[in-house]
Structure to design on (668 residues):
């Protein structure tokens, strides 16, 4: 087991209160000491500023009574020194002042004092004020202490869940892994059927563990969101693919529909979006015995920066009564306790979905009538993919299409979807494509394969596109390569200043993401013409 | 099953499995035996580093994280420092988001979580041992 240690800073709460009295008149000191020692206080005294500061640093006081007029450093200065030292800044200070002038009182408060007692003072007033501030201080300590305990226990809970998840996953690996292995051996039909049942049970168990872990991550504020370009239809298609088998088993139709005005590409976290949709669809499939489950997506608004979408998961299931609808998105709650017995599940799926949607700047809700199906709906926000303008000049395009030079093209790109887009488009045009996923591999592959062209992503792990380009140029120079390989920057954030940066880094051209076939054709044509020159 | 259609042939390739859990080791043995790759074994990070020092030809390491003596994160750092060309695939039951980032910072090439799916494991290793462009 991995050990994590948590320390709770203990606050000293229960001790006898310690008070420091600072006054240059011994008579006053004796008088106050006398009054206060009737109570169970520990009293210390100082007759000037310097000795007050030294004592305050050496001992932990709960309260300081501070005279304004002192022979060496005056009370105001003593106060500001104490307040600027982390060791002493929390000690409440009450000024003892003979000057009744308003401004000296105000100055005391501005410097951080909690109160003042005008001299000459009455015994009752002194006691009352001292008691009040000691009580306040005690209450404050208790609050800080409780807050620390609460924080420590939240942390302990998160660590415990992470550790327990690890401990559960390890034997799960044995179960699920060995099922895979066993399926590769010679088995009878009956054995295969049993193995499948073990497999499905294992997957269900894993899903529950994942839910619990996800939930604890959300609670502990540990969820992070990716910002990558993804194709919405592909992701939703994936969701239906994952759940199709489940729906089929119950004879339900599972479909999706995306309104035509919804942008094809979005920037966001496709995994988290899928997780929400899978949770909602799973829920709908669970509570629907016949009919359909359908995902619908429509556009709320979009501008240059943000796209706001409306998602709906509609089913023809048993529906949910209004009083149960409000309970739905709360953790560990299902519509009724009997639901758990009948339908199973942790009751965490919807709570997780609600939290994830909120983290994507959206909200989730339900429209339903008991016995009449349900519509789970949510809104959330994505980044806009700035599209490079389409090239409509078909004639020119066709002309270019006719050139028959085929390139060997190296694509350096860490995002799998973007890799696929590039490969598909380039292979469609008949070019040979090599793919690497970081800058170091790009340099190595360039040296080994000597490609005709490199499409280089700018932001990559290990080594970015700029550095990789510099390394390639350096290698070409050292090896006296005559025709340097054209390198084209690929990036989603196409700013004019960036283009200059790319050219200065030794790149030849620039391709904004996402790009389509015609962008590629134009680019290849430009490169081809440059090479001819 | 799809598996039967895909052949993973890694003859002449060497794979080091670093894992302290006995069941996991049995799993890796069964999963990788048919690929004909040469398999080596270590039960903690320290042993893994020693094997890397002694073995001239090593293509890929399957590295567990949570191990006695020296954990996988540390071992990954040391090995990548000595032999950056060796591919390191971390395989762990820790799935917290920070864990993956830390492993990548330590220099690992891939991060896969337990329970491991056989096809995913084989495809991931295949991607490195048999580069897709040369297939």
């Amino acid at each position: 087991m991995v050990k994590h240690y948590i320390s709770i800073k203990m606050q000293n709460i229960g001790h006898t209160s310690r008070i420091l009295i600072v006054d240059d008149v011994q008579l006053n000191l004796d008088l106050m000491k006398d009054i206060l020692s009737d109570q169970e206080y520990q009293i210390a005294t100082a007759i000037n500023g310097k000795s007050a500061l030294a004592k305050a640093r050496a001992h932990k006081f709960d309260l300081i009574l501070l005279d304004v007029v002192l022979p060496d450093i005056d009370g105001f200065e003593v106060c500001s020194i104490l307040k600027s030292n982390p060791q002493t800044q929390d000690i409440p200070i009450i000024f003892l002042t003979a000057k009744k002038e308003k401004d000296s009182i105000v100055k005391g408060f501005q410097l951080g004092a909690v109160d003042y007692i005008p001299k000459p003072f009455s015994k009752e007033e002194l006691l009352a004020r001292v008691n009040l501030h000691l009580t306040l201080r005690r209450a404050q300590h208790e609050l800080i202490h409780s807050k620390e305990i609460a924080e420590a226990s939240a942390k302990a809970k998160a660590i415990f869940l992470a550790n327990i998840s690890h401990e559960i996953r390890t034997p799960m690996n044995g179960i699920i892994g060995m099922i895979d292995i066993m399926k590769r051996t010679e088995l009878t039909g009956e054995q295969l059927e049993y193995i499948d049942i073990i497999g499905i049970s294992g997957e269900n168990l894993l899903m529950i563990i994942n839910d619990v872990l996800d939930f604890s991550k959300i609670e502990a504020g540990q969820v992070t969101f990716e910002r990558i370009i993804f194709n919405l239809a592909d992701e939703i298609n994936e969701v239906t693919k994952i759940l199709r088998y489940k729906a089929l088993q119950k004879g339900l139709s599972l479909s999706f529909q995306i309104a035509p005005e919804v942008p094809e590409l979005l920037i966001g976290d496709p995994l988290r979006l899928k997780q929400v949709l899978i949770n909602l669809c799973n829920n709908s499939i669970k509570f629907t015995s016949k009919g359909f489950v359908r995902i619908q997506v429509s556009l709320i608004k979009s501008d240059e920066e943000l796209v706001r979408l409306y998602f709906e998961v509609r089913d023809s299931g048993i529906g949910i009564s209004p009083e149960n609808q409000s309970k739905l998105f709360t953790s560990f709650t299902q519509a009724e306790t009997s639901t758990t017995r009948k339908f199973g599940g942790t009751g965490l799926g919807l709570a997780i979905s609600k939290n994830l949607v909120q983290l994507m700047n959206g909200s989730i809700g339900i429209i339903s009538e008991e016995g009449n199906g349900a519509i789970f709906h949510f809104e959330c926000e994505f980044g806009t993919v700035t599209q490079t303008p389409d090239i409509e000049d078909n004639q020119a395009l066709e002309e270019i299409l006719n050139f028959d030079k085929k390139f060997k093209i190296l694509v350096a790109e860490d995002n799998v979807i973007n890799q696929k887009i590039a490969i598909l488009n380039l292979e469609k045009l008949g070019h040979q494509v090599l793919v690497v996923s970081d800058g170091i591999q790009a340099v190595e592959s360039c040296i080994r394969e000597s490609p005709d062209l490199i499409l280089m992503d700018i932001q990559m792990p290990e080594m970015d596109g700029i550095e990789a380009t510099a390394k390639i140029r350096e290698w070409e120079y050292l090896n006296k390569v005559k025709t340097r390989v054209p390198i084209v920057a690929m990036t989603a954030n196409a700013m004019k200043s960036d283009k200059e940066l790319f050219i200065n880094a030794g790149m030849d051209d620039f391709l904004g993401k996402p790009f389509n076939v015609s962008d590629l054709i134009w680019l290849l044509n430009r490169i081809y013409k440059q090479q001819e020159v | 099953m799809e598996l039967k259609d895909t052949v993973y042939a890694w003859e002449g390739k060497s794979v080091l499995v670093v894992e302290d859990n006995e069941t996991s080791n049995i799993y890796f043995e069964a999963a990788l035996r048919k690929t004909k790759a040469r398999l080596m074994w270590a039960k903690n990070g320290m042993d893994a580093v020693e094997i890397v020092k002694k073995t001239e030809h090593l293509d890929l390491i399957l590295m567990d994280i949570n191990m006695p003596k020296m954990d996988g994160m540390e071992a990954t750092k040391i090995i990548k420092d000595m032999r950056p060309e060796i591919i390191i695939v971390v395989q762990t039951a820790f799935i917290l988001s920070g864990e993956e980032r830390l492993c990548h910072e330590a220099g690992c090439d891939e991060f896969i979580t337990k329970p491991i799916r056989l096809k995913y494991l084989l495809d991931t290793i295949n991607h490195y041992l048999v580069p897709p462009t040369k297939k």
Summary: The longest helix of chain B spans residues 22-33. Residues 1-5 of chain B have pLDDT under 50 and may be disordered.
